[in-house]
């Protein structure tokens, strides 16, 4: 059985890398998919490839969009609803790594632009599509997290801070939209060998420190985390199997997500897979 049969989906930043892998997984699972990207050439290549994989009667559409522009994002959402009729799934994948180096040295304009894409791009798409999802009484929003969202990532402060903000936005939206049966989750895909890794290696140990540079070099040598596994997690969360799982940050390579629905009741009444403050008692310390 197809896990996403006839569901409408929007995947941002789908021209290459993880976004393309997610769109490909959605297409093969029977979804109707609208992809977007900033590079016309790469977007056309992705569209051609995905169209060839589409099952009979399923749609693949493309639309150029810079998610840092609210107007362009609004146009993208309108286009998707017009083309597909119904959209149940939004994947906010578009993102940039931003400036690399000491926080006091990097370009403040580049810092701001990282937030415009990673955080505001996610916010714009959610705001534009939520009324449509509310009207259906159902929906799935997946926001891509990244390194630094749940722990410090020195020398990548714009990226880490913007992704932490995305996770908190995810948790807020999950609570606001729970009664509307719209599930909102964040996905941590793992350390992927994508363009961001190449940017990290190009920065060199002088900017990112010897430890992070060696870790990045080892990641490239070992192949990194699986794009397909991250895409499969997105399929799972976008499917009916994960209905009711919401407000969580889930790791593709580390968490036992294929059977998460078996623990839905426990999950819903706990703070498992969330960002929370740790106090001494959580570590068996009595400081009072």
If you had to describe this structure to a student in words, what would you say it looks like?
The protein has 288 residues and is an alpha/beta fold. Helices cover 47% and strands 12% of the residues. The protein is built from ten helices and seven strands. Strands 3-2-1-4-5-6-7 form a seven-stranded parallel β-sheet, with helices on both faces. Helix 4 (108-136) links the parallel strand 4 (89-92) and strand 5. The radius of gyration is 19 Å and the shape is globular. The mean pLDDT is 95.
List keywords for this structure.
288 residues, alpha/beta, 10 helices, 7 strands
Q: Which regions have little confidence, pLDDT < 50, spanning 5+ residues?
A: none
SSE string? EHEHEHEHEHEHHHHEH
Radius of gyration: 19 Å
Biggest β-sheet: strands ordered side by side in the sheet: 3-2-1-4-5-6-7
Task: Estimate the mean pLDDT confidence.
Answer: 95
**What is the oligomeric state here?**
single chain
| Beta-strand share of residues | 5-15%
Number of strands: 7
* Largest sheet report: 7 strands, parallel
What proportion of the residues is helical, as a percent range?
Answer: 40-55%
Structural class: alpha/beta
Taking the alpha carbons of the first and last residues, their distance comes to 56 Å
Tally of contiguous helical segments = 10
């Amino acid at each position: 059985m197809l896990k996403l049969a006839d569901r409408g989906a929007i995947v941002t930043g789908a021209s290459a890398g993880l976004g393309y892998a997610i769109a490909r997984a959605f297409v093969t699972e029977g979804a109707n998919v609208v992809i977007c990207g900033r590079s016309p050439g790469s977007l056309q290549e992705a569209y051609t490839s995905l169209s060839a994989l589409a099952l009979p009667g399923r749609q693949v559409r493309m639309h150029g969009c810079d998610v840092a522009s609210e107007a362009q994002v609004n146009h993208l959402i309108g286009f998707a609803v017009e083309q597909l009729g119904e959209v149940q799934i939004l994947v906010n994948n578009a993102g940039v790594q931003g400036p690399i180096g000491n926080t006091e040295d990097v370009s403040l304009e580049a810092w701001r632009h990282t937030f415009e894409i990673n955080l505001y791009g996610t916010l714009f798409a959610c705001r534009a599509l939520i009324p449509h999802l509310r009207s259906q009484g159902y929906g799935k929003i997946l926001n891509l997290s990244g390194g630094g969202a749940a722990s410090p990532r020195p020398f990548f402060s714009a990226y880490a801070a913007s992704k932490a903000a995305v996770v908190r936005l995810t948790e807020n939206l999950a609570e606001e939209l729970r009664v509307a049966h719209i599930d909102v989750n964040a996905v941590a895909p793992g350390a992927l060998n994508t363009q961001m890794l190449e940017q990290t290696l190009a920065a060199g140990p002088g900017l990112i420190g010897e430890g992070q540079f060696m870790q990045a070099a080892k990641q490239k040598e070992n192949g990194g985390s699986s794009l397909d596994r991250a895409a499969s997690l997105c399929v799972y969360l976008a499917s009916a199997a994960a209905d009711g799982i919401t407000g969580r940050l889930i790791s593709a390579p580390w968490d036992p997500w294929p059977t998460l629905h078996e623990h839905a009741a426990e999950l819903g009444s706990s703070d498992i897979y969330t960002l929370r403050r740790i106090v001494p008692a959580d570590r068996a310390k009595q400081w009072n």
